[in-house]
What does this fold into?
Amino acid sequence: MREVYLDNVATTPVLPEVLETMLPYFKDAYGNVQSLHNWGDKAREAVEDARIKVADLIKGEAEEVIFTASGTESNNFAVKGLAMAQQSKGRHIVVSAIEHFSVLHSARTLEKWGFEVTEVPVDKYGLVDPNEVAKSLRKDTILVSVMHANSEVGTIEPIKEIAAVVKKSGAVFHTDAVASAGTIPVDVRELGVDALSLAGNEFYGPKGVGALWLKKGVRIIPFLDGGVQEGGRRAGTENVPAIAGLGKAAELAKAEMAKRARRLSPLRDNLIAGLPQKIEHVIVTGHPTQRLPGHASFCIEFIEGESMLMLLNSKGIAVSSGSACTSRALKASHVLIAMGLPHEIAQGSLLFSFGLDNTEDDVDYVLETMPPIVERLRQMSPLYAKFLKDKAKGGK
Amino acid sequence: MPVYNEKVMDHFMNPRNVGEIENADGVGEVGNPVCGDMMTFYIKVKNNHISDVKYKTFGCGAAIAVSSMVSDMAKGKTLEEAKKLTPALVAKELEGLPKNKYHCSNLGAQALNKAIDDYLKKQGKTAKSQKGGKK
It folds into this structure.
C-alpha cells in the first residue's frame, strides 16, 4: 500500500545527517558534560557547538540558549519560571486563547498558585490583535505569552507588533515558537521577545529535546533543581546525542529554510485550492496568507475527524485532527472554538502537514482518496441527512 | 490513533445496517455534535419483534462500530429483549472498547431504547400522548 506521511506537525522525521551527528555521542563520546576528563570534554564540545547553532537559527547569543527535553518543557519553564521570578511586581499574566496546552495549562496552574490569567481572543483566522493584547494589560501584568505560529491552523501571529505593545508595559514577553522555529525565519531581536521556546522534532531533529531562549538579564526560576547544568537553570545530565542532533537540525534548517519553504508552499497551496473543488462544504481553517509553509487545515462539514483519520489511515495517509473524539479529553479543539467555529464543524477538523519527503503526487493521492471517504461518512451522517432535508425544504 | 480491536475495526470499516427507514415505527435520536457523537436509530416492529433496524451516526470510529453492533444485536429480538441491551453488553460483544470511548456504547444502547420507547408511545402503550416523540 502507498504510504503518505502528512503529519509533520506531530513530528518530522530525523534527517540522515542529523542522525549521523548524534550517533558518536551514544557510542564513543559517551561522557558526561560535567566530567573533568577527555570524555567530558568531547561531550561538552558537542553541547556548546549545538548551543551556537541553535542560537544562530534564531539570531540569539549562545549563552542565552537553555536546552530542555521538549517544547512542552520549554513552555512550562518559561510560563511558570518567568511568572514566579517576577511575582514581586504583580501576579497577572496574559495568554492567547489558542496557545498550546503546555502554555494554557501552565497558566491554569499559576491560577491555582494565586496568579490571575487573562485570555486574549482571536479572530476567525486565529489571529491575535495587538490592540486586544494592549487592552488586557494591567499595572500588575508581569508576563504575556503568545505563540509565534499555531500548529493546528498554521496561522502566524504578529509577534513583533504584540511584543512592542507588551514592552511598553514593562511585562516580560514569551513566545512559543515550537511550530515556527526552524520552519520560518525567527529573529529574537527583531521580534523583540524576552523568551522563546522551540523543539527539535518540528524541524527534522530528534524528539525529546528542545530549547528555551532567554534574553540576557531576564530572571527566571529554575524548573528543575539540582546540579549546575545549563548555568544552574536546568539541572539534569545533558542529553548529549539529542542536543547534538538539535544543533545539526538547526544548522540545516538555517541553511535550507528558503529552499524548503519553496518546496512546501506549492504543496500546501495546491491542497488548499484542490480539496474544496473536489468536495463540497469544506472550510479552510487558519489565515489564507499568514500561514506556515507546509500547513493545510480544513473542517469537513457533517462528519467527524477521527473516523476520517481512520479511513485515511486505511489508505496509507497519515494526518491529524482536532476533533473531540481524537482528543483524550474528548473536547473539540479549543483553537477552532476560539476562532468562532461551531462545535459540529470543529468536529470535522483535519490537518495535513507536509514535509521534505512529500511530493505533488502525494497531493494528488489525497485529492483522489478524500472524496469517497467523505461521501461514505456523509452517507451515514444524521447531520448531513438533516442538511439535505432542510435544503430540499428551503429550496436553497 | 485510538487502539481499537479487530472486531471494532471490522464494524467500523464494514458497518452493518446503515441507513434510514422510511415510515419507521420508532425513531430514537441521542447525543449532539458538541459531545462529539450523534446517533439516530430507526426500527420496524412486527409481532412485537424488531423486524428491521437502521441508523445514521455522526462520530468517531467507536461510535460507528457501536451503532453497527447494536443494530446487529437488536435485529429479530422482541422489544423486551432489545430493551435489555445494555452498554456493557454492547461493549462485551465488541470485545472491548478503549476506556475513553466507553460512552459511545452508552449512546448506542440509549438510541435503540429511545426508538423502542418512541414506538411504544405511538402505540399508546406507555404514554397518554398518541403523537410520540418525534425528533
In short: Chain B touches chain A at residues 1-2, 12-13, 15, 18-20, 29, 33-40, 55-64, 100-101, 103 (CB under 8 Å).
